[in-house]
């Protein structure tokens, strides 16, 4: 096995600090992305959204942090998020991963995980 394969996804994303940087970069990208910016600009508590995203990514990637937010389906129910918005958000996430020097294999793994969750986000 190569060193990348022996590290958990959490470790490959930089642990809590790395994931926090990535999430902040994603949120910054969302706020400047015309397809999704209105949803994030309308957020009553962007800091809370960032905290929930950090917890979600940490817990979902094998970190010791607990996720204290609502499940994805409940959190996105009634938002009527389109496929185009979902893809724009995915592009922002991939851009943040590249900005933080996350390797191709790890970016691919994150992409696969996020695509597996789209049924709980798009048009629910």
From TrEMBL:
<keyword id="KW-0479">Metal-binding</keyword>
<keyword id="KW-0408">Iron</keyword>
<keyword id="KW-0813">Transport</keyword>
<dbReference type="Pfam" id="PF01152">
    <property type="entry name" value="Bac_globin"/>
</dbReference>
<feature type="binding site" description="distal binding residue">
    <location>
        <position position="76"/>
    </location>
    <ligand>
        <name>heme</name>
    </ligand>
</feature>
<dbReference type="GO" id="GO:0020037">
    <property type="term" value="F:heme binding"/>
</dbReference>
<dbReference type="GO" id="GO:0046872">
    <property type="term" value="F:metal ion binding"/>
</dbReference>
<dbReference type="InterPro" id="IPR012292">
    <property type="entry name" value="Globin/Proto"/>
</dbReference>
<dbReference type="InterPro" id="IPR001486">
    <property type="entry name" value="Hemoglobin_trunc"/>
</dbReference>
<dbReference type="GO" id="GO:0015671">
    <property type="term" value="P:oxygen transport"/>
</dbReference>
<dbReference type="InterPro" id="IPR019795">
    <property type="entry name" value="Globin_bac-like_CS"/>
</dbReference>
<dbReference type="InterPro" id="IPR009050">
    <property type="entry name" value="Globin-like_sf"/>
</dbReference>
<protein>
    <submittedName>
        <fullName>Group 1 truncated hemoglobin</fullName>
    </submittedName>
</protein>
<dbReference type="GO" id="GO:0019825">
    <property type="term" value="F:oxygen binding"/>
</dbReference>
<keyword id="KW-0349">Heme</keyword>
């Amino acid at each position: 096995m190569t060193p990348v394969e022996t590290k958990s996804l959490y470790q490959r994303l930089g642990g809590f600090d790395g994931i926090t940087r990535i999430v902040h970069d994603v949120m910054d990208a969302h706020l400047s992305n015309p397809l999704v910016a209105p949803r994030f600009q309308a957020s009553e508590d962007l800091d809370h959204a960032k905290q929930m995203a950090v917890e979600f990514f940490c817990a979902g990637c094998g970190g010791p942090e607990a996720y204290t937010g609502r499940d994805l389906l409940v959190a996105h129910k009634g938002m009527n998020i389109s496929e185009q918005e979902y893809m724009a958000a995915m592009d922002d996430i991939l851009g943040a991963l590249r900005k933080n020097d996350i390797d191709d294999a790890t970016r691919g793994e994150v992409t696969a995980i996020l695509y597996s969750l789209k049924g709980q986000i798009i048009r629910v």
